[in-house]
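Example 3.2
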Amino acid sequence: MRRWISVILVVCLMLSLFSSAGCIRDEKTGPQQVAPGAEASSGSKGTPEVDAAEGKPAGGAIQGQKENIENVGKTSPEENKIQDGQGEASETPGKEKEASPPAGGSGQEPAGSRGSEYVTFVDSLGETVRIKKRPQRVISLYNSYTNVWYSAGGEVIGRIDSTEQLTKKALSAEVCGSMGNPNVEKILSLRPDLVLLSAGIGGQKALIPILKQNNIPYMAISYENLQEYLQVLKTMTEITERPDLYDRIGNKLQREVNEILARVPKDKHPTVLLLFGTATSLRVRLPNTTVGYMLKDLGTVNIAQDSRLTEAEMQVFSMERILEKDPDFIFLQTMGSDLEKIKARVAEETSANPAWKTLRAVKEGRYIVLPKDLYLYKPNERYAEAYEGLARILYPEVFK
């Protein structure tokens, strides 16, 4: 009996050993492959346990995933600033990207996309200057230049006090002193990005160093004839980026004047005397003035031109020289608001002298006082009209 009990115990022990060996083999043949640096999925560190009561994950492993899902499509405060236009993305670490300034503040396409943003030219002082295209805060200190600027498609925010021969479009601009005495403080307070001025006027030329000190661009202008006017107009239309206006005004004007000059008799060269009278003086005008150039283009000979004299001497009114030359025509330009005083001053030098009445031009009614709107002020867009007006006087048989 004892022997059977011993056998049974040995068999049970052997069965127990065989069972343990089988379990070990199962664990070794079915391990989970884990990525380097990751933990094997077992217990709470593997597949999440489920709360049997609600069917929801038990524990916080999914909480991190939930936060990530909620943040999809959201940006950081810094990124929000960039999207809202409050900041700029940096192209280079540690350096902010520079924002491109608006083209003239008008939403127009930047000039640089179509070429240079600047117009370079030589001004009336012989200096090479660069003006940025499409300036928005322009001040003009000379009415004729203001008118040309408007013809070129521009506008001004500042002007001189005089409104004589000024385009109505500029009347609302702020006054910046007079032509001879511009108001520096007013000009600077308006923060102009371009000033149009005449270097031939002392008060305006004196303004140039101040403009340079304040980095204010300026355009020193001077023109006395049609070709110079057309060049100024062309430059201005390049600055305003309105070449179409030059085609419409400049090219048309050139054609009209050419047609007038083509009709001038080639075999006639009438002599002329051009006078310039004010309430205080009477002087002789030379061919290098606005009306002088037109008269020369129309085939006349100015009797004041004398190679033996200096320019200053040629401008002195000399009855003796006038009588010697006895011109075919005498033209008088006047400047000033008091026409009676001007006439009186001119009479002192002319009709008060008995010799004046002996001149052929006076006796035959060819002593003409020129209208100020075309022949004192620069004719600009009316150049063809000014040429034709003189042509009708000089050659009435042709220009009827």
